[in-house]
Amino acid sequence: MTSKPNLLQKIRIVLCQTSHPGNIGAAARAMKTMGLSQLVLVNPKTFPHAEAIAMASGATDILEHALVCNTLAEALQGTTLAIGMSARRRELSHELVSAHEGVQRAVAIAHHAPVAIVFGTEMSGLSNAELDHCQLLAMIPANPEYSSLNLAAAVQVISYELRMATLNNPQPASTEPAPMATNDDVERFYTHLEQVLVEIGFLNPAQPKRLMQRLRRMYGRAGLEKEEVNILRGILSATQTPHPPAPPSP
Fold first, then answer.
1. pTM, to two decimals
2. Do residues 61 and 16 share a domain?
3. Which of 17, 67, 195, 210 gets the most CB atoms within 10 Å of its CB?
4. pLDDT digits (tens, 9 = 90+) for 161-194
5. Boundary (domain end) residue, out of 137, 168, 199
6. Which helix (H) or strand (E) covers residue 85, if one does?
7. How far apart are CA 202 and CA 196, in angstroms?
């Protein structure tokens, strides 16, 4: 069985704050067995490392081409969908779907734009701040009495789901969809939005509470198109420098 390589090449696996280099190597091996090649590491504790090479068991090319970033925002540049993997429900959570459904959505979008599947650190998973950069939360439906998967095992499950989804996913519609906003576009919008909310007195930076977190998740559910982000930023700019309409002609 062969998958559609172009789709798999548009899907990146992002590992955040990985503590053990062996897990990075094992994740690379899991990816290569299913035809994935885009590995991105966010602030790994130790990399490169001999243990990562040993655990990769021949998938050293994945490690050699892995992109190492300082922040998750950097790792997600150019993507239009980031799916955060979690073993637990979160307060103020994104929409939560099964890993299978999340992968189906990822592959549908990969026909047109890059996507990312994001994994957190081994001990605590994704932080709330990291989850703010994702638009969807997915969970592997493991045994509820013992749901903690090893990081590499979780990557293997998702890699398998991705391979099967690319095998079974129908060709995209002939009509090209409207371009989705990239993570970069959306992050600039959030920065602009926060600036304006402070300027108009709606957001108190000394006591922000969870306003920006709630707004991020609200817009994240919307799946913003590029043109929609441009409209929203235009409204923000007009709020900062209003131009009242000219009076009607006599």
1. 0.86
2. yes
3. 17
4. 999 999 886 566 555 678 889 989 999 999 999 9
5. 168
6. strand 81-85
7. 9
Indicate the residue among 168, 201, 219 that finishes a domain: 168
Each residue's pLDDT tens digit, 198-225: 999 999 988 888 899 889 888 888 889 9
**Cα first-last separation, the chain:** 75
If asked whether residues 203 and 161 sit together in one domain, one would say no
Give the distance, in angstroms, between the CA of residue 81 and the centroid of all CA atoms in the same chain.
5
The count of other CB atoms within 10 Å of the CB of residue 51 is 17
Whether the Cβ atoms of residue 136 and residue 108 lie closer than 8 Å to each other: no
| DSSP assignment of 231-249 | HHHHHHHHHHS--PPPPPP
Tell me: do 115 and 79 sit in the same domain. yes
Q: What DSSP designation does 138 have?
A: E
Residue 140, Cβ neighbours under 10 Å: how many? 18
In a domain, 87, yes or no: yes
69 and 43 share one domain: yes
Helical axes 211-222 vs 183-199, angle rounded to 10°: 140
Structure tokens at 18: 């990985």
The two beta strands, 38-42 and 67-69, are parallel
Identity of residue 203: L
* CATH number of 104's domain: 3.40.1280.10
CA dihedral of 100, 101, 103, 105, whole degrees rounded to 10:
170
Q: Are residues 23 and 131 in the same domain?
A: yes
Range of the domain at 50: 5-168
> How far is the C-alpha of 220 from the C-alpha of 241, rounded, in Å?
27
Residues 114 and 199 in one domain: no
Q: pLDDT (tens digit, 9 = 90+) per residue, 63-79?
A: 999 999 999 999 999 99
With beta carbons less than 8 A apart as the criterion, state whether 85 and 158 touch. Answer: yes
